[in-house]
Amino acid sequence: MPQPIGIYIHVPFCRSKCPYCDFYSLRGGDEAMDAYTAALLRHIATAPTEKADSVYLGGGTPTLLGSQRLSRILEAVAAHFPLSKDCEITAEANPRAAEGDTIAALGRLGFTRVSFGMQSAVSSELRLLGRRHTREEVAQSVELARQGGIDNISLDVMLGVIGQTAPSLSQTLDFAASLKPTHISAYILKVEEGTVYNSPRFLSQIPDEDTQVDLYLAAVEGLSSLGFHQYEISNFAKPGYESRHNLKYWRCQEYLGFGPAAHSYYGGSRFALPRDLESFCKAPGFGDIPFDGVCDGGGFFEEFMLGLRLAEGINLDQLGSRFSVDVSPLERACPPLERRGLLCLNGHHLSLTTEGFLLSNSIISHLLNTISC
Predict the structure, then answer these.
(1) Which residues in the chain come in under a pLDDT of 70?
(2) Tell me, what's the pLDDT at 373?
(3) By C-alpha distance, which of 156, 177, 182, 13 is closest to 88?
(4) I need a surface site. Which of 4, 231, 233, 323 has the fewest CB within 10 A?
(5) Strand, coil or helix: 307
């Protein structure tokens, strides 16, 4: 029986652009949001019909659309895609009082999970990140979502931000845990080209690589002590609350993306929509805009790289057999890395350690260079 797919919807609207953000987002009023929503409904209605067990609205700030537009979007998704009874339906949200009414309504609209962009509980760090909320608003937003019937709540935390120290990180993690979320994502700040942070003024203030490593290891240890197990490089969850939708990315399972800049993996191909709201709104339906970056998906290399992002790792014997790849040279290259504490090879099962996650790109490249496909 085919594996249910995931549905990703990119909502490209924000109140303002954070200085570190490289995602496609822009400011938009009611007219732009109405045009986007109308186009989105057309694209959904003309997409391939598949059973789905996860729906994820990201961005941007999906809650800026308001309850009525979000309701229409979920109704369109449910009308076109047969959703599993336990479908995980996530909305990203900014923890701001201005969006409180929409946050309180998410459960009633059909969402089962909320991911709040908290980033920090320290006011000085929030200011430098361009975040407009306070820690008090985070607590209020979590409570509103919970009162609205959503118990599956995720919080984002950023590591290695300007001014962050081990004590300030501990303060953020303790505050996050006090709100009793089921999931925490902890990302190391990465400065992208074209962002405000990619300038001498900010680059000189960002913690160096050694400090970022120390903060990451402190976060892993701190979250573990608070009851969150690490299941992916940057993701931690209470047992049973791992993000089903994001696991599809790392397990190379199929998903369809809607909205400007949204990516898809479907029918063996990977493709993306252009970062262009106007062209998206003008298109009659799904597939009527030329996709960007169409390429074959899957394959040994891809499944190897994505699988090693997960703490569960991969079975080399099974992966090699499926793609007719001799993995024995790769396995012979593992012991030196294992002695350094960077990975674990148990029989044919390979996984990276926490320290290995920090060097995952170079480790994966080194191992893949030992084989030929």
Answers:
(1) 1, 372-373
(2) 57
(3) 182
(4) 323
(5) helix
